[in-house]
Request: fold
Amino acid sequence: MSPSICWLCNLFRDGTNGITSRMCLEEVLQWSQSFEKLMATKYGRIIYRSYLKTEYSDENIEFWLACESFKKIASQKKRISVAQKLFQDYIQPQAPREINIDSPTREAIIMNIQKPTPSCFDEAQRIVYLHMERDSYPRFLGSAVYQNLLQGLSARRKEPSVSIKETE
Reply:
């Protein structure tokens, strides 16, 4: 296994004080049923995001999460500022974290960026979601990260429960 993900595997294996202490096997098993189920849970998104970092492709989930936050912005002034930042970071050609979207989608965003609506990034977000669902999600399910997490939670479930008896 790559040294770059050893810390990640150790985090997931440590059931006493790591993130896995707050997860159950049933939740993690549901992630394999659909990408939607993975993305619907807090820990699913956290672990999937960590996995994407090991593949150097976390710009997709970062953009998707940023769009989710962007939709909740009520102030038009703040929406304009955040839309410009999203455009500079993810949309414009040669952006530092450029996402893979088609030209018509990019052009539509360019046209709407001056007066952005909460839905102005919806098509780009949908495209990125489909990329993650079709490309990296199947790899995630077969990855050491996910498999070690399943094994750790399965082992924890099989451990006998420990009870503390009162001494007389």
